[in-house]
Structure formats: structure tokens, C-alpha cells
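User:
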Amino acid sequence: MRILLLCSAFNGLSQRVHRELVLDGCEIVVQLATSDEEMERAVQQFQPDLVICPFLKHKIPDAIWQSLPCLVVHPGIEGDRGPSSLDWAISDDKETWGVTLLQANDTMDAGDIWGTMNFPMRAGANKSSLYRREVTRCAVSLVKQAVRNFTDQNFLPRPLIESQAPGCLLPTMTQNDRAIDWQRDSTAEVLKKLRAADSLPGIRETIGDRVVNLFGGREAEGLRGEPGNFIVSAGGHLCRATVDGAVWISHAKEAGKFKLSASRVIVPLLDYPVDELSDVPPALQEIRTEYSDEVAYLYFSFHGGAMSTQQCQDLLAQYRELAASDVKVIVLMGGDEFWSNGIHLNTIEAAEDPAQESWENINAIDDFVLEVINTRDKLTVAALGANAGAGGAMMALACDRVVVREGVVINPHYQTMGLYGSEYWTYLLPRRVGAQRAKRYTEDCLPVLASEALRDGYADNLFKGDLTAFHRQLSDYCQRLVNVAEFGHSLSQKIQRREADEQEKPLQQYRDEELQIMRGIFFDPGAEYHRARKAFVYKQCAKSTPEYLRRSSMTVSNTEPVTEEVLEPAYGQI
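Assistant: Predicted structure:
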């Protein structure tokens, strides 16, 4: 089946749908909603059987939906309409919400229904987290079922009967709706408003003489102050008093600029000093370790999965402590929302010398990767429970074992940012997937689904998509690594292979070759990287669909499908 994905952006949900449908045997082309003319041209050129819109904020041209069935993912319950669906669901304290797949017609979100699925609202979750987890899971299930139904001559979508539907048309949530009254709103109300505005558009306020949008929110236990005042900072977060307590705000953005840590943006705008805590409260710590018997689970929950120079250095310091300890297995857990996405483009863009900061950042992440590769007396595991990309996707391969959660999307490439890449990828990736597939991974610039990663050799194990089951399986897996009699033999094999690889080509040579190219890019003012980085951090909309998305994607005929069962590892092999 030929399917055109029509998207406002090729976001995480769109990428997941893309790969799921390719693996189901569909031929897929992606068209960004850059203009009516381009969308119509894509339909004329590709001649799809079906149009699917996983993430679309634009109106579908009449000429398209009138001639082809166009299925739109709407993150709301049946009958819900409007662009602020999740925002209102959080604001109205809904206990249950849902996703509806409907056919486009002349009224936004009011077409025939192809499927709907509800989910419990996760307590304390912000909008972006709900979208990445619950909404994505339901949307993928609905889209795959709809594709099956499309080939069923007996299937008919049902019309939306608004008088019987649980949802209704809601207006676009405005900044007036989101506004926090710091003199009246409780901590719970403030947090709810911040959750509903994450990660766009944030809550707009005037601080000093500047318009600033606030993002992220966490209760600041035990802290009080004059309502509305900023009390203290810690780890980039800024604590602001409410009428009955205080909240930590993680990020902020000046109008016309881009998102950075809250303290970095707001403190210079204040006419009073804000002290910084010497010890970051545990709830705000980005890097932490949990222990279970002889296994250490190293979490690094960096916003957006981006790792700044300082964050890489802090992570390296924590890893070295674990490497010097008596644990047998070190598990790199990443964060709950992203595993890692490599260097921190926002802090680079904000630096006085972006080229120099880029250079320092890539060297800092390389230092961490090198330390993991050279860990000789422990087994290391990369546990990808969330999406990973670019340098983060390569960093995972430094570990002896790579396990992925079902449904995770990996983007093992750099070229969309105008980069060649480092993180020892020229050593790590071909070693895992072979030279031919490594070339395809890095040059096709397409996402890779967890099951594909297992099939291709990028990963060793595929665990269940449910997070609770994933962590349980991961724990069992790591305990088996510790307890097997072959643990010493596995270490011996690991060391022998590393020594053989070093004799063939030293790690330093890989690093030198990669960084020679990267340095040339970083310090070339005319390099595409600088334009692409700026477009990324300022969230500039694409003016056209990149060629790599316009190419038809199909299944590879000479590969066998991977079942969803957990594949048991060969513990004597690294």
C-alpha cells in the first residue's frame, strides 16, 4: 500500500508511525505541510492510496481530502475538537483522555471516526510527556488498525454524532487562559498551568522589562517566600514563591530567543539578587545512581536529551566513581523522556563563541564514550527506554550490551544538522551493524525502530514496551549478567576483542579522523551546521520537504521480521 505521511513536522510520533508502517510492508513518502501547492504536488507525484496525518497543524487542501481518504490523528477523546486538546485536559483535571483517528472533511476534527482509544491521565505528567508516551502509543495502534481496515471492503468509518460524543469543541488556549496569578494561585494550580504549557508555548510573563516564557515545574518542598518572588537557584532551576509554597522552574525563553535554563535567562533581568544553593536538591539532580546488588543504574536525565560540555564532564566524573567501585555491571539509563541526543545545541548557540563551544562539547562527550569503551573489569549496558539520536545514539554503542524498549525510535545519523559526527561512531557503528548498513544509517537519515535495531545488530535485546515491564526485564537481565558463571570469561573475551581492535586501528586514530572533519565544520562560518543549528534552536519551520523524506521508504526484502518476544542473550559473548 502506498501511503503519504502529511506532517507539520517530522516529530517523534511521525517517525514512529513511519517506521511501523514500513515494517508492515507499506511504501511511505513524507511530505511536510509547507504549502498547499507542495502538498498537492506530492499527492500528484506519489499517487498514494491513503494519506495519514500523524502530526498536522495545518488545514489539508480541499483538493486532497476530497479525492483521497485522509486520516488525521487528534490527541483527544471522541468529539473533542480544537488545537489545545491536551492543554485543556490537564487544566480541567481529566482523569481519562484519549486519541481519535478521523477522516478529514470540511470541518476541523469533525470527520468520520476510524478509531478511538482512551488512556488514564498520568498523575503529574506534563503535556509533552503525555504526548510522547500515551498519545503516541494509542496513535500508533489506531493507525495500524486503520491501515488494516482500509483493505477490508466491509469496514466503514462511523460518523461523529456530536450530541452523543463525550468531547466537544474547545477554543485555542490563550496566554490569558494560562496566566498565573502569583498572589492567588496555589502551588498545585501553578504546577498544573506549567504542565499544560509544556513544552510549547510556555507561560508568558513580563520580567523586568522583558517578555519571558516559563517552562517546566516541580514543587519546591520546604521553601517559602513573598508570592511571585524568585527565592533561590539550584542547578539552573529557579525557585519562585507561591501563596502556599514554591515551585522550581526549569527553563525560560526570552521573546525572539530560544530556551535555556531558567536561572540563566531570568536572574540577569531581576533588580534583586538570587542566591544559589551549593547543594542541588535530590529532586533536581540530573545525574543519579541506583544500586541493586552488584549492578549500578546510572541515570542522566538531561532536558531534551541534550548534553552540554559541563553535563558531559559531570557524567564522566560520576561514571569514573562507578568504574572504580566494586559493582560488576554499570547500566546507562539515560532519562525518562530521552535517552540522549548528543551535544547541546542551545548552549552552543548561546555561547560567546559557538564554534569553540561546539569543539569543547564534542570533546567532552568523546571523553565519556572513551571511558565507557575502555572499562575492562565490568560489563556495561546501554538501556534505551526512551528515544535517542545523533551522538546519543552512537554513545549507546560504547557499551558491551545494548537493550531497547519496544517502540523506541533511534536516529543514528548527523547529516540533517550538517555534521559528520564523532563519539567514535566510525569504530562503534560498523562493528555492530556492518559497514554497508552503517553507511545507510548515517546517510539515509531515517529513524530506526527498536525492532529494526535488534534485527540489524545495533541492539542485543528487545524488551517490552510497557515501562514497568521494561524495568523488570532489565533488572532480571542484569542480575543474570552478574550471576552467570561465565562472567569472568565474558570479561576476558571483551578485553581480547578490544586489544585486537586496538592493534588493527587505535581508538585515538578514529577520534583524530572524526574530529579533524568536525573541527573543519565547526570553525567554518559558512558551514551548513551553523544555519541548521540556528534553525533548530529557534524552531524555524521548514520551507520545503528535505529530499531524504521525499524518497520512498519500503521494507528490505532480504531481512526477516523480528518477533516481539524477548531474545535471550548469549552471556558468554560480547
